Amino acid sequence: MQGSGSGAATSGWRNWAGDQSATPAAFERPGSVEEIASAVLRAGERGMRVRVAGSGHSFGDAVCTDGMLMSLQAMAGLLDVDRSSGLVRVQAGITIGRLCALLAEHGLAMENLGDIDVQSIAGAVSTATHGTGARLQNLSSQLAEVTLVLADGSVMRCSPERDPEAFAAARVGLGALGVIAEVSLRCVPAFTLEGVDSKAPLAQTLASFQEMALANDHYECYAFPYSPTALTRTNNRTEQPPRPPGRLSAYFDDVLMTNHAFGALCRLSRRAPSHIPRINRLVTALASGRRRVDSSHRIFTSPRLVRFTEMEYALPRARTAEAVRRVMELVERERMAVPFPIEVRTVAADDALLSTASGRDSGFVAVHMFEGMPWREYFEAVEAIMDELDGRPHWGKRHFQTAERLRGRYPDWDRFQAVRARLDPHGLFSNAWTDRVLGPVRAPSGAGAAGG
């Protein structure tokens, strides 16, 4: 989409998966905090609600709006680095991949990452994006300070020392509190990981899931419906020097096999869904082990060229294996056409008010569907299982929940709503998605946005 300072929208917006779209009345691409504030004030004057788009890697309709859509892609700079403390301040639109490359130049790294690095840092933390590691928290837990532009155009900086209640809400703010303009992150000295990919019997993998999660720095597994074999990935810190793969080897593993070959099998599955059980068994049978030693951000992330849509739920960690077994049984009992594996990860509890891991050590179960294939029946049936297991939906992925159903799953739900009512009393930063999953803002009579 192209935009201008006047806020004129010339075309629509689509997400990476291509299955969410919007035609906003105005599109803004600010280049500074001041320009964000001016755009927010213009929206208020014109009676438009405001949403902010990251890189489009969310699968739900959290960004979609017919009001003002804002992109922070022009605000992607590294503002300050303190190598001794590990504190780094960046603009909100910087992608995780660009951030990691800049951190490496200063001998620093993110403590944990997910498996892709194209999201903006603001979008990733706002939706509680996570990696895997039973003793490590999600990305928003690495925040030290958040700079918000509020509905009245004022600028607020919150941290554990400065308005800690707003900070606890803003760490996973869903874009509902204001526009994140800058963040400060607690980074760690750069480190090397040894990554090992292997396969094992699915029953054994699920039986030992908690044990393996606790025994490794980072552990995840993939269960293919109709296959008795699971694929596993362990990443552990090592003192060995990085040994990056050669360009040809990296292309063969990360692009040709993981993306192009798998994509071809998914297209075959879409054309001939009755063959999916055999195709999935073939994928796991042909999977080979791999060992890599490299800088942490290169081990954590890999390219994702096969397009899909996704739903993910956070559960009490002790119920993770049960959830996977039930999803596998569902798919096979109903003979569902599911060519994608179920992805299983874990993170430690944190204290962000609407974090999916708030107050509990969590396991994550993610289900996917290849582009162009029916997904709703599968996702709805999986969500019914997750509801029974006290699941919390990933905020950046598909789900069918409402505020009424979600409120009881978050012990600090009302605290978040109180911060929301204080910072955005008239619901400027709302859309149909926030109306559904958070409900309308219920501000006290006469309230106004408060900056700091």
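(ticket continues) Second input and output from the same batch:
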Amino acid sequence: MKEYHTQSPLSITAEQKLLFKKSGIQNRVFDKLKKGQFPIQEECDLHGLTTIEAERLLTVFLNDCFRQHLYCVRIIHGKGHGSLNQLPILKNFVCEWLKQKELVLAFSSAKPNDGGAGALYVLLKR
């Protein structure tokens, strides 16, 4: 069962929390991710990038993490306060991109001390 708490691109708000898991991911694993209980092994900050630059960097980052056998990473997409009309453009696109990546098992908005609604914890295939 897939769990979606997101809408189509550009409909996600700056403070909205994101949750996603692919079928087969145990609820206790997903709960642990949402609580920020996995160690963050690497992070990727997409602040200030165009959508084209962000998508390229995200793809390279995820592939590198997979090759390094990393399991939990943080992706910082921001809340869009610096973009036109203060829309969270990268947040919307990152959410859609991650759902399409085969390497991504689940993701959740981070806890406030790890970036809150401006960042994601992401579980990757090993």
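Agent notes: The first helix runs from residue 27 to 34. The chain has one domain: 3-124. Closing as not reproducible unless the customer responds.
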